[in-house]
Write a structure and sequence with these properties.
6-stranded mixed β-sheet, alpha+beta, Glutaredoxin, about 290 residues
């Protein structure tokens, strides 16, 4: 896979943007789209980059840019760039997302981020924002608006650098991020705001979730690879717990709730997923 060089990205960074000594990294994730198809970021590693457009039902910024989204994809998808949309609006459900697509024909897979955890990880705050990710190294290479003409804008410069022949991201130490504040439809993140202000309590909020959803397998002699028998053990495994929850690998036997509901399915309710991930992000505190 061709990669992006420091020299190539320096051209984009010179356009009055913020340069960072190290690229921002994001974790892997899996989300279901409007057609029921799963998308896992790491499985796009055969691509040069993934462009993610934040979307919300009824957002005029998205609706007015349908033709430009398609033009952007036409310019780059044959050069190893994949395009996805991300719906993280609290007000939108899968049926509404499908209805919006039927009317406006975005023709992009629209991932349903019902717990808003992927938007939090990507730093998205508005529908209409654009994020470019290297799916192999999980680096954010661009975050900002969709420019009127991307050929000479930072977004175009970044994409051109990514697909340039001979580029190598191992040499990269500069990224383009927050070129300017993206216009769009503001999204509300009440859970993130709540748990950033005060992390969930381990004893009264986190431990009961783990007991209910995980300890059936994660006990001494159980089929789980480690026993959830102490805070220290859980804290040590927290990065892995976050990854398997974000990629839907655990708990097992999950069923897409938009398709069918079973009493014994392994799905973790949205509120519990939010508590677990934000608690881990806070450092898995004991008190």
């Amino acid at each position: 896979m061709k990669k992006i060089s420091w020299l190539a990205l320096l051209t984009a960074a010179a356009l009055s943007v913020n340069a960072h000594a190290a690229p921002e990294r994001v974790g892997d994730f899996t989300l279901i789209d409007n057609e029921g198809k799963a998308h896992q970021l790491s499985k796009y590693a055969f691509n040069e980059a993934v462009v993610i457009v934040a979307q919300a039902t009824g957002c005029t910024m998205n609706q007015e840019n349908v033709a430009r989204y398609k033009q952007l994809r036409t310019n780059w998808d044959h050069r190893g760039v994949s395009f996805l949309m991300l719906n993280s609006s609290m007000e939108d459900e899968r049926a509404g997302i499908r209805a919006e697509e039927a009317v406006w024909e975005y023709d992009f897979p629209i991932m349903d981020d019902d717990a808003q955890l992927v938007a939090n990880a990507l730093g998205i705050t508005k529908a209409g924002e654009v994020v470019v990710v290297d799916p192999e190294r999980m680096n954010v290479l661009y975050r900002g608006p969709l420019p009127a003409q991307w050929a000479r804008a930072p977004l175009g410069e970044v994409l051109e650098a990514i697909v340039a022949d001979g580029a190598d991201s191992r040499e990269m130490d500069t990224v383009v991020e927050e070129v300017e504040a993206a216009e769009g439809c503001a999204l509300e993140f009440p859970a993130a705001e709540q748990y950033i202000a005060e992390a969930p309590d381990y004893e009264t909020e986190i431990a009961p979730i783990l007991i209910e959803r995980c300890v059936g397998c994660h006990v001494e002699g159980g089929i789980g690879p480690f026993a959830m028998n102490s805070h220290m053990m859980i804290q040590g495994w927290s990065p892995m717990i976050r990854e398997v929850i974000m990629t839907n690998r655990m708990p097992p036997m999950q069923v897409d709730p938009a398709v069918k509901s079973f009493t014994n399915s392994g799905n973790i309710p949205i509120e519990e997923r939010q508590k677990l991930i934000h608690w881990i992000n806070a450092g898995s505190p004991r008190d």
